Each structure stands twice: as structure tokens, then as C-alpha cells.
From TrEMBL:
<keyword id="KW-0049">Antioxidant</keyword>
<comment type="subunit">
    <text>Monomer.</text>
</comment>
<feature type="domain" description="Thioredoxin">
    <location>
        <begin position="2"/>
        <end position="153"/>
    </location>
</feature>
<dbReference type="InterPro" id="IPR036249">
    <property type="entry name" value="Thioredoxin-like_sf"/>
</dbReference>
<dbReference type="InterPro" id="IPR013766">
    <property type="entry name" value="Thioredoxin_domain"/>
</dbReference>
<feature type="active site" description="Cysteine sulfenic acid (-SOH) intermediate; for peroxidase activity">
    <location>
        <position position="44"/>
    </location>
</feature>
<comment type="similarity">
    <text>Belongs to the peroxiredoxin family. BCP/PrxQ subfamily.</text>
</comment>
<dbReference type="InterPro" id="IPR050924">
    <property type="entry name" value="Peroxiredoxin_BCP/PrxQ"/>
</dbReference>
<keyword id="KW-1015">Disulfide bond</keyword>
<comment type="function">
    <text>Thiol-specific peroxidase that catalyzes the reduction of hydrogen peroxide and organic hydroperoxides to water and alcohols, respectively. Plays a role in cell protection against oxidative stress by detoxifying peroxides and as sensor of hydrogen peroxide-mediated signaling events.</text>
</comment>
<dbReference type="GO" id="GO:0045454">
    <property type="term" value="P:cell redox homeostasis"/>
</dbReference>
<dbReference type="Pfam" id="PF00578">
    <property type="entry name" value="AhpC-TSA"/>
</dbReference>
<keyword id="KW-0676">Redox-active center</keyword>
<dbReference type="InterPro" id="IPR024706">
    <property type="entry name" value="Peroxiredoxin_AhpC-typ"/>
</dbReference>
<protein>
    <recommendedName>
        <fullName>thioredoxin-dependent peroxiredoxin</fullName>
        <ecNumber>1.11.1.24</ecNumber>
    </recommendedName>
</protein>
<keyword id="KW-0575">Peroxidase</keyword>
<dbReference type="GO" id="GO:0008379">
    <property type="term" value="F:thioredoxin peroxidase activity"/>
</dbReference>
Length: 153
């Protein structure tokens, strides 16, 4: 389990647009990693739009926001284009980063058990340490709450 005060697990993942993003290369910026289940689903779209609406404010606070799911780069590009998203979406198709952050979990829906991404957010400080963790995120007002926490670092 990821705990506050520990160095965030490093990764390099492809993003929409084709570039690669390495977490450790983002220092000394504050980094928000929000893990979400699937592109173009209602909750995930709302969350992406909320983070996009606050993208400039995150930048003013010295932060960078990255959404991560197991969807492909192509799906991310379509999702960004369809909704005009202003945050980078990273593709973790093999699930290694989801595993490292402990968000690949057993879930239940309508009596069926399956593996999936638990909606979770991690705020990482300028030193690369986990500053705050949100698990089982409810989308409403979440992006604003993360922004306030980022401003407080």
C-alpha cells in the first residue's frame, strides 16, 4: 500500500499525443496522479472535465495533473478530442503502474466480482514523496479538494 511520506513509485508511460512521461522527471513540480477506470464513461468523463477545468489553477500552484487508466493511447486521444480535455492522460496497458500504486483491486458490481481500477488520487510533493492519498474517490468536488491540498504544499 502506498503511504504518505514515502517516495512515489517511479514509472514511464506513454501519453496522449505520443510522448512518454517519467514521474521522476517532473520534479520539482507537484504532481497529481488520478487513476480512473475507463475513458468515456460518465464518472470518468466528469472527473476528467473537472480536472481540466482547473488545469490552469493547478499550473499556477506549481502542479501537473496526469490521469492514468489501462486504456490505450489511441483511446485516450479520442477521449481528449471528444471532450476537449486539458490534462495529460497516461496509458498503463500492462497494469504495472496500477499494481505499484495498489489501485488494481477486486471489485463487485451487480453481484459479479472482477478486477478493475479503484478510483484513487495521489498528490506528490516537489521531492517526489506522497503527500496525500485519496482512495475510493467520489467524483463530485474531488478536483477542487485536490487543488486545495496542492496549494497547501
Amino acid at each position: 500500500m502506498i503511504e504518505t511520506g514515502r517516495i512515489a513509485p517511479d514509472f514511464t508511460l506513454p501519453r496522449d499525443g505520443g510522448d512518454m512521461v517519467t514521474l521522476s522527471d517532473q520534479r520539482p513540480a507537484k504532481v497529481v496522479l488520478y487513476f480512473y477506470p475507463k475513458d468515456n464513461t460518465p464518472g470518468c468523463t466528469t472527473e476528467a472535465l473537472d480536472f481540466s477545468a482547473l488545469a490552469a489553477e493547478f499550473a499556477e500552484a506549481g502542479g501537473r495533473v496526469f490521469g492514468i487508466s489501462r486504456d490505450s493511447v489511441k483511446k485516450h486521444e479520442n477521449f481528449c478530442a471528444r471532450h476537449g480535455l486539458k490534462v495529460a492522460l497516461l496509458s498503463d496497458e500492462d497494469g504495472a503502474t496500477c499494481e505499484a500504486y495498489g489501485v488494481w483491486v477486486e471489485k463487485q458490481n451487480y453481484g459479479k466480482t472482477y478486477m478493475g481500477i479503484e478510483r484513487s488520487t495521489f498528490l506528490i510533493d516537489a521531492r517526489g514523496q506522497i503527500a496525500k492519498v485519496w482512495r475510493k474517490v467520489k467524483v463530485k468536488d474531488h478536483a477542487a479538494e485536490v487543488l486545495e491540498a496542492a496549494r497547501g504544499l
